[in-house]
């Protein structure tokens, strides 16, 4: 929701009315520094705190801690994007939110910093599923959620236009680094311990974390990590990134060398051009981190795991039927699915180039009782959404990282049985937001038991560097111990999908967008 189109300078200024802003506050409202928050579900909440400012296609600058008193009682605008059209959007989106049991500098609670999904193109931490008002009190932690620049605003590669744009391919990542520096410098005032900062993220949020684990500027800013169905084995090469920038500019009807036109174009014009066809992989044009050899001097997990990440304790997880979240079982892709047409439909969805007829035959031999639909979702999950996690966990194990744990969510949704255990379904268990809009967990006793189990694991990692479940063994080779989370309980299983893992390892995995 852009409303009237604003100039760049007016757009920056307009955000002040939507985020932490001057005004009267109730005497009982909590205050930290110059920010006045509110009480929410028994915890203190501070929303819409600006951690930085940035001009378009330029690195961010930190926001001063001192200054006029501000109310931090409502979320600010989200990053410009094609998604979430009903929410206020602004390029002035470098905002974070804090939930804390108490704003006591002596409390020194572990800190959990969340980055949202939506690939690198869409999404926001203001989604009710990722509010911290349950996780903070139930997990006894300080929760921080962060928004940053996305899509072309955060990741378009403009360095060929000159050194002025040298950071352009990773600006969204630099925003996250600036937010983590804010946490380091100021979270103690909110009762957090800057020496115990855990980053966690789902889907694109997990990919952003994997990328940070190879960025020298992020070194030392977080002490543990958890990725949920989100991996980044390789980044985009500068050649492919440049092709995407040129595709965007062509869609905007700009000359190939008109960087000034791109820099000054209305934000809406850039967002509308994101529908341009990606010149490398097809579909809408992709923007993500770029191997620029400065901010990101190597791929995160290729050819091996980045050495700077090996000492960071890490949880990696996925759901058993990831693709049920975005391939509707009642939609056109599954309409009329049977053994005669399943192979080409699988081929269109996976990221590993194998003969689909051979893949189907192998599955049918291994699982003769499976229906076409069950095989389709298993194969598209294992050949599309899961391989990156396997590669990352294996590479950490090969490199000698001792503190790696892997989970697999098997609990199906009781709200929508056709959904199974799909992409995003682990979010409400971590945040405790079982009853939030968009949750498929239900609120019954087993949902609560699953929440308690997963939340304990995540908060344990934040507090001690180990999951809060003593029975969860680290992931090593060749065992590949995996915590399989079912309906209110969990079991440790070695290599639970060995057949599928070995089948899809027959060919190389190509990271989407690389």
TrEMBL record:
According to the entry, every stretch annotated as the Carboxylesterase type B domain falls at: 35-481
- SUPFAM superfamilies in the record, alphabetically? alpha/beta-Hydrolases (SSF53474)
Which GO molecular function, any one, fits this protein according to its record?
Answer: hydrolase activity
One of its Pfam families is: COesterase
Q: Which UniProt keywords apply?
A: Hydrolase
Per UniProt, the enzyme's principal EC class comes to hydrolase
User: What PROSITE patterns does UniProt report for this protein, alphabetically?
Assistant: CARBOXYLESTERASE_B_1 (PS00122)
Q: Identify the EC number(s).
A: 3.1.1.-
Question: Does Transcription appear among the keywords?
Answer: no
Q: What InterPro entries does this protein map onto?
A: AB_hydrolase_fold, CarbesteraseB, Carboxylesterase_B_AS, Type-B_Carboxylest/Lipase
Which family does the similarity line name? Belongs to the type-B carboxylesterase/lipase family.
Q: What protein name applies here?
A: Carboxylic ester hydrolase
| Native organism | Sphingomonas ursincola
